[in-house]
């Protein structure tokens, strides 16, 4: 076994911040929302934070650290089929970053979360809550986005459940994905030459880029927050 540095600090902070904020979003809408007096307001604020996090993540996916880049965790159909066959047979081919199915799952969740956060900007419950951009679209458009927001939430729940199941399956097969997202390092069998996704490439991205993306995300969220 050898250890590979995979996830740098920005991507780890993003991941756990997103997990916490999405959990809060679902809690405030799928339960009574206690102890919050106006859970829908908390839900809306959490959605703005999710949007800011996603702005950062899409930027980091284009020019951030090696394993976090979009091109790195997208694989062709053949690679996905081969990995699926390996998943059924037993030992899995080692990937330092996202494996072919995991990369597809991450992309699907990022897209779904982006649709959810963006559509939420135009909604209103006509009683207690009005999203920042609600008045900038017609009632027909807002109603259509409300329907999209509802059904995409169901899709998002399904994607999250699949993600959690995949974590359990990989843990049973000896791959500790959660631990890697905490420490940034992943334990892999064999030497670096046996890893399928160029694990020897440094994981770090530019701290200046991370700071710039953070400033942009905070600026957008701050502007929407005060509307």
From TrEMBL:
Keywords for the protein's UniProt record, in alphabetical order: Cell membrane, Membrane, Transmembrane, Transmembrane helix
Q: How does it sit in the membrane?
A: Multi-pass membrane protein
Q: Which Pfam families match?
A: Ni_hydr_CYTB
> What InterPro entries does the record tag this protein with?
Cyt_b561_bac/Ni-Hgenase, Di-haem_cyt_TM, Hydrogenase_cytochrome
Membrane spanning stretches: 12-30, 42-60, 151-169, 208-225
The entry's localization annotation reads:
Cell membrane
Q: What is the name of the protein in this document?
A: Cytochrome b/b6 domain-containing protein
Give the species. Halomonas gemina
